[in-house]
Write a structure and sequence with these properties.
This protein is an alpha+beta fold and 370 residues long. The chain is built from 14 helices and 13 strands.
């Protein structure tokens, strides 16, 4: 796995060959691939389902099994819906158009939050997806994310292979972006995804996105790149019919690894150039072979439940409001004034503020239904 022979390794161990920094990195990387703490794992990272009903109470209470009394309501929506209910990052859209029905949307944080509700309900993703399909749910989008803890994938190297035509694929296009370059497409983490490679058209029903997750964590949270627990992420993004067939396979085999890699292997493989052979006979690249399953431990579908927090609100206050509050506090102290107290005393809480207080002070068990 380190790209050296057993004989060369023996000479290094015997002190007959100097161990260079580059070789040390390769050896440590090879050891990390056999780390028992799951070098890779799978997550649901985006779920969007349309239900053929305007009975939003039924969708929220009986399918999502959430307590609608804790949800916020807004008289606007997205995707041409006219209103929505939401609890943190769990969004349910509706309108008066029977053809549009009711739409559930869970982005990355929404999936993590919904997992905390599934845990309280003693349900799994498989249980929920089965309930959704039984209720006539139509899959609009499903993203499966393969998280690489060991640095198995090398995104710049995969990009180089695409450029050298060492990528055998049913897709006709790929696009790459250098670390820190602005991604012009509708990504939530536009400038913070490190080296990014899109394989396939973003307008098609299936395409892949792989990027340096450690760079993203550095850009967003300041986590040192070498300390980030996840090095890379490979996302399988499925829409409409492709999303439906993936869910059907998940509910047939209950094996997320099989589902994910059957999709990957159907569409793409990375090879090493062998000029004397036809491209279809080129040898599978060693790194890629390990990624798709050769000599590595099985990958499990995991959950990473996170409760809804005021992270974004607190971040905004920290950036935009806190300096002014600190200034007023110093002025109050220096002039014996009470600007801050007056501001707080005169502040009026809206119904939305009161509902958020209820959400934040409720136990998870109160937010779900039986």
């Amino acid at each position: 796995m380190a790209g050296i022979s057993r004989e060369h390794l023996n000479r290094i161990e015997a002190g007959k060959v100097t161990l260079t920094d580059d070789m040390q990195d390769k050896l440590m990387g090879a050891v990390e691939k056999f780390n028992p703490d799951a070098p890779m794992f799978l997550l649901f990272d985006y779920v969007r389902i349309r239900f053929p009903t305007l009975d939003i109470q039924h969708v929220i209470k009986d399918i999502l099994k959430l307590n609608i009394d804790y949800m916020l309501h807004e008289d606007y929506g997205h995707y041409k819906y006219t209103e929505h209910y939401y609890l943190g990052d769990v969004f349910v859209y509706t309108s008066q158009d029977e053809e549009k029905g009711t739409l559930l949307e869970l982005k990355g944080k929404g999936c993590r939050q919904f997992e905390s509700y599934l845990l309280a309900q003693e349900r799994s993703w498989y249980d929920f997806l089965m309930d959704a399909l039984v209720e006539g749910g139509v899959m609009k989008r499903l993203d499966l994310a393969i998280n690489d803890r060991a640095g198995i994938l090398d995104i710049p190297d995969l990009t180089a292979k695409c450029n050298r035509e060492e990528c055998v694929s049913l897709f006709r296009s790929f696009k790459s972006y250098a670390s820190g370059e602005l991604v012009k497409h509708n990504e939530q983490d536009k400038a913070g995804m490190g080296h990014t490679l899109y394989i396939g058209s973003l307008k098609s029903e299936v395409y892949f996105c792989c990027y340096e997750k450690n760079y993203e964590q550095y850009a967003k949270l300041g986590v040192p790149i070498e300390e980030a627990p996840i090095k890379n992420r490979f996302e399988i993004r499925l829409k409409d019919e492709r999303a439906y067939y993936a869910v059907r396979e998940l509910l047939t085999h209950y094996d997320a690894e099989q589902t994910a890699f059957s999709i990957i292997n159907h569409y793409i493989r990375f090879v090493d150039r062998e000029p004397e052979k036809r491209k279809t006979d080129w040898k599978l690249n060693d790194r890629w072979a390990w990624f798709i399953g050769k000599d590595r431990p099985p990958i499990k579908l995991t959950t990473d439940p996170e409760p809804y927090t005021l992270e974004r609100t607190l971040g905004w206050i920290s950036r935009q409001v806190a300096p002014t509050l600190k200034m007023l506090k110093k002025i109050d102290a220096g002039n014996s004034t009470s600007y801050l107290k007056e501001i707080e005393d005169n502040a009026k809480l809206t119904e939305k503020h009161l509902q958020i207080i209820r959400q934040q002070t409720a136990d998870t068990e109160e937010l779900v239904t039986e």
